[in-house]
Amino acid sequence: MSSEFILETHDLKKWFSVRSGFFSRTKKYVKAVDGMSIEVKRGEIFAVVGESGCGKTTLARMILRLEEATEGEIWFDGIEISRMPQHEFRKYRTRIQMIFQDPYGALNSNMRIGDIVAEPLRIHSVYASVEEEIKKVKESLENVGMTPADDFINRYPHELSGGQRQRVAIAAALALDPDVLIADEPVSMLDVSMRGQILKLLLDLRDKMGITILFITHNLAVAKQMADRIAVTYLGKVVETGDAKQIIDEPNHPYTKALVSVVPVPDPAAKREKILLTGETPNPIKMPSGCRFHPRCPFAKASCSEIEPELQLQPDGRMVACFDEGE
After folding, report:
1. Which CATH architecture has domain 5-95+178-320?
2. Domain limits of the chain?
3. pLDDT score for 327
4. pTM of the full structure
């Protein structure tokens, strides 16, 4: 594996089995992630974007081994971790941490803020003395703007605002000094006034600590501002990946074009043709034949329903899974 990348997934799949009826013995599968491959460089912010239900959160949970992969591989810092026994993976768990989407549900309402931030330190027996632990807890809180830390350490989550709760969640994730931080829709549950502050905090942490961030979002405008590179996903698979600004400004895949066309722009005089997709997202239990996007694609041809395209390197450096890139 290349030392340039700290995190890689190769043809990763997660299928959840479901039964068609109470008495049925036939199993069907929800293909939440169905062959997803990404490569995340050290120190970058890599965004995974797409509609709800495209497999973004399931991908994050598999990287953390909260869900076990059905097929495929996960490589972290040159080591294949997807099939590693849990007792061996434990030492890598400290190096990959996650910020969950809901700051209200992520924090234990019965625990004080200091104990919430200290919990991962205690689970992994990082410090032998209480003094060292308290010092690290205060440092983590101050790193996310909860200053002075003494004013917050003995409070409970219900005494904080939504933005402060999310800062506490970030502090808890940073307490173990991870190499990779997975941010799963970190601002979607916050009001608009707080979103900018949390996003700026993540950018500052990347610059200050050199941490790698896997940023999961459905908001392409946010992804453009935050990310160095982007992977656009549809029905459990990456359809386009490359430089963030390049993909948002000049989308290539028909699905990416449709997503970008409805992103609001600040200039009221700007005119842009909106691409409105027809129909609903297909059932992940029964994937369409050929290209999985072809039932909704405004550029689809007869051949699109027969052969599923794989990611192909383009002259401009991006990877696109489309035979004619929507032209």
Report:
1. 3-Layer(aba) Sandwich (3.40)
2. 5-95+178-320
3. 45
4. 0.92
